[in-house]
Specification:
- Helices cover 66% and strands 8% of the residues.
- It has eight helices and three strands.
- It has helices at residues 3-7, 16-40, 46-58, 65-71, 79-88, 110-122, 124-133, 136-153; strands spanning 63-64, 92-96, 104-108.
- Strand 2 (92-96) and strand 3 (104-108) form a beta hairpin.
- The protein starts with a helix and ends with a helix.
- This is DNA-binding MarR family transcriptional regulator.
- GO terms for molecular function: DNA binding; DNA-binding transcription factor activity.
Length: 154
């Protein structure tokens, strides 16, 4: 009996593909939960962290809302609302784009960069669940398999 079957008190799955899908969903939800707990202590959400990382990568240039939407991990996020919350926390600044008044430019602030620096110092604790379960070779194999799946859809 596999771990997922034990955890879910599940009889054997009909196919390895069904078992794989259920396992991916379960592990994905477990990882999201771990991330939510981790980011709580920094008073931000996973989605806000994602925006801050994108903006750090753009720094010192600004990004527009559409670019942030395209690069978000969570495609269902309301980027405008997330940016506004980050602005209120003084982690980003936003202003009308010089070239297109309808567009909004968003830049990370020094306070936002400092927060990311603090998070970076502790982020390895999120990787521990992989590091404790998989060898570097297995992690590379996992990445290769996930990349293969992503190649079918993106």
């Amino acid at each position: 009996m596999s771990n997922i079957e034990k955890i879910l008190s599940q009889k054997a799955f009909n196919t390895e593909y069904t078992k794989g899908l259920v396992s991916l969903i379960f592990v994905g939800n477990w990882m999201v939960s771990r991330h939510q707990q981790f980011f709580k202590k920094f008073d931000i959400t996973m989605q806000q962290y994602n925006i801050l990382r994108i903006l750090r990568g753009q720094h010192p240039k600004a990004a527009n809302i559409n670019m942030l939407k395209e690069r978000m991990l969570d495609k269902m996020s309301d980027v405008s609302r997330l940016v506004e919350r980050l602005r209120k926390a003084e982690l980003v600044e936003r202003k009308s784009c010089e070239a297109d008044r309808r567009a909004v430019d968003v830049k990370i602030t020094a306070k936002g960069l400092q927060l990311l620096k603090e998070i970076d110092e502790e982020i390895e604790s999120l990787e521990d669940c992989l590091r404790q379960s998989l060898s570097p070779k297995e992690a590379a194999q996992l990445n290769k398999l996930l990349d293969k799946m992503l190649g079918l859809y993106y």
